[in-house]
Amino acid sequence: MTRHSAAQLVARARRELADATVPNRFVDLLESGELPRERLVWLAAEESLIVRSDRRSFALLAARFPEPPAGEFFLGLAQGEGRALELLGDFVGALGESEKNLSTYEPKPFAQAYPAYLAQRAAFGTASEVALAMLANLEEWGAYCSRTALAVQAHHGFSEKDVAFFTFFAQTPPGFEELALDVIAYGLESGDDPEGTVRAARLLHAYEIAFWDVLAADLP
């Protein structure tokens, strides 16, 4: 399968994800100033666990698929998660919390479904599955991060440094899409199932929706 065919598969996945997108109540409440501050602590605590898990998942994928283009792609993602973890510390501090405090937080099961599924695919899935899932979901995730950064600054007085975790994810790294397409094309040419690859993107998207839903659960 050519790179052009891989791009067509990505376009199909993006259309399917767009059709499945629902309003993000957490971000909507945050933008309106109605979100309890406690839920921002939930967000920080859940993300602390997610980023650590995702970094290990990407490192595992780099070990499973060390040859280019996959090895470079997944190593870059693992390094990005490491940088994100550093930036998250500023957000945690601005909330008046600490990593020690967050260690006592009890995770919400469905908030952790996303990293659990990514870890499953890292162990048992294909490189093209994960590359497509990350690429197809990137725009929506980045938009939510951008909205979160702006809303937290507007309603809680946080600085740009305090919300750098979110602005980091709001920006697509240079060359990310091109490299992801190379990984997808290489995997499909090697026999990866196109339908299974798109299915992984749909499932990851559903688990991301579940993450945001949990953070806004039971709010009026």
UniProtKB/TrEMBL annotation:
Species whose genome carries this gene: Actinomadura pelletieri DSM 43383
Pathway membership, UniProt: Cofactor biosynthesis; thiamine diphosphate biosynthesis
Ranges of residues in domain Thiaminase-2/PQQC: 26-141
InterPro entries: Haem_Oase-like_multi-hlx, Thiaminase-2/PQQC
Protein's name according to its UniProt entry: TENA/THI-4/PQQC family protein
Domain of life: Bacteria
Ranges annotated as spanning the membrane: none
Pfam family, one: TENA_THI-4
SUPFAM superfamilies linked: Heme oxygenase-like
Phylogenetic lineage: Bacteria, Bacillati, Actinomycetota, Actinomycetes, Streptosporangiales
